[in-house]
């Protein structure tokens, strides 16, 4: 194991993907069970996501799910990747994280994104529109102010005020510049476009302003990592998500994950096949030795302090095996990475 990998934190983001033939309730229970396993293996943090109105995703209320995860674990950090701030009032977000931090002190992270609902129908149901994402920086400033007690309204966020819940910005596009100006850690996820990722990291570091939240830049790179005993087995882990993404791109609906064998056997149009092949490309996948080499390259390119794994697949046991293999190659549990 290289010293570069040994000195890197590894964490997990689970999106509570629904599998064909299973319910959303089962997907949520699977997320909690995965968090227990991630803690046992030595991963640094476990995050959950926010999606609304998506047939193949059960994770619609990340702070509620984070509470369930934190209650089922003891030591792993728990948070969101992320709460989509334009969908919510900053005061309410501060209150929710204040409750989480009060119940699970020293273990809660506040990952924040700037996306709004994916479709017009979802945005209407949330009472939001695309332009709300443009106010993200102001919303972020207001949210952080509730923790510091600097709101000019005379209102106090209880129990958030005075608490320190580490904030992270999910940096897609403009998010990198926002994170830099606010002096916050940045999460960037675009493994399939390494040049774009590298440029985003460089912009973030160049523009970073030290703050009370973070004295220096902190970069988390996020993406799919699949580890198996053979390259073919690792590729099969990617198939269900690639097929569902191709379906979404061509039919407008992101469905539950199918078994890899069924997905590969299904007839597809030329356009679907193009999206499907694209969905299989650009991830880190292979044997432990192959993945270790790719991770070293990624860490050299970005100088990231942490890798956040977001892998989804139909076969839960194969997914757990992938996380176990990754933990082994990263030396988790005996790693020299800082606490």
For CATH, the homologous superfamily is named as Luciferase-like domain
Structural class: alpha/beta
**Quantity of strands, as a count:** 11
Q: In the CATH hierarchy, what is the class?
A: Alpha Beta
Oligomer: single chain
- Radius of gyration, Cα only, in angstroms? 19 Å
Give the total of domains. Answer: 1
User: Strand sequence of the main sheet, in spatial order?
Assistant: 3-2-1-11-8-7-6-5-4
Shape summary:
globular
N→C terminal distance: 19 Å
In CATH, the topology is named TIM Barrel
The amount of beta strand, in percent, is: 5-15%
The helix content, as a percent range, equals 40-55%
User: Quick one: biggest sheet?
Assistant: 9 strands, parallel
Question: Helical stretch count?
Answer: 13
Give a brief rundown of this model:
This protein is α/β, with parallel strands linked by helices. The chain is 46% helix and 12% strand. The protein has one domain (3-223, 303-330): Luciferase-like domain (TIM Barrel, Alpha-Beta Barrel).
């Amino acid at each position: 194991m290289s010293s570069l990998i040994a000195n890197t934190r590894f964490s997990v983001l689970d999106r509570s993907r629904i599998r064909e033939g299973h319910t959303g309730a089962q997907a949520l229970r699977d997320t909690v069970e995965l968090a227990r396993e991630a803690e046992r293996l030595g991963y640094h943090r476990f995050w959950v996501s926010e999606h609304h109105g998506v047939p193949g995703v059960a994770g619609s209320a990340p702070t509620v799910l984070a509470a369930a995860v934190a209650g089922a674990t003891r030591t792993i950090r728990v948070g969101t990747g992320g709460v989509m701030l334009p969908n919510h009032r900053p005061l309410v977000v501060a209150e929710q994280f204040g409750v989480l931090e009060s119940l699970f002190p020293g273990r809660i992270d506040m990952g924040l994104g700037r996306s709004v609902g994916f479709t017009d129908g979802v945005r209407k149901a949330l009472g939001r529109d695309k332009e709300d994402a443009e106010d993200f920086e102001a919303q972020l400033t207001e949210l952080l102010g509730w923790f510091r007690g600097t709101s000019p309204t005379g209102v106090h966020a209880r129990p958030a005020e005075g608490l320190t819940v580490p904030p992270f910005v999910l940096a897609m596009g403009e998010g990198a510049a926002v994170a830099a100006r606010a002096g916050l850690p940045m999460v960037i996820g675009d493994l399939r476009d390494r040049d774009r990722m590298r440029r985003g990291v460089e912009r973030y570091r160049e523009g970073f302003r030290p703050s009370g939240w973070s004295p220096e830049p902190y970069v988390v790179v996020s993406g799919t990592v699949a580890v198996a005993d053979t390259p073919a087995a690792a590729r099969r882990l990617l198939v269900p998500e690639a097929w569902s993404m191709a379906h979404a791109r061509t039919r407008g609906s992101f469905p539950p994950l199918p078994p890899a064998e069924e997905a590969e056997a299904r007839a597809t149009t030329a356009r679907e096949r193009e999206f499907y092949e694209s969905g299989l490309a650009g991830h880190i996948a292979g044997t432990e030795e192959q993945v270790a080499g790719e991770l070293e390259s990624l860490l050299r390119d970005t100088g990231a302090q942490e890798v956040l794994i977001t892998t989804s697949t139909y076969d839960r046991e194969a997914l757990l095996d992938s996380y176990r293999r990754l933990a082994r190659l990263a030396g988790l549990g005996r790693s020299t990475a800082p606490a």
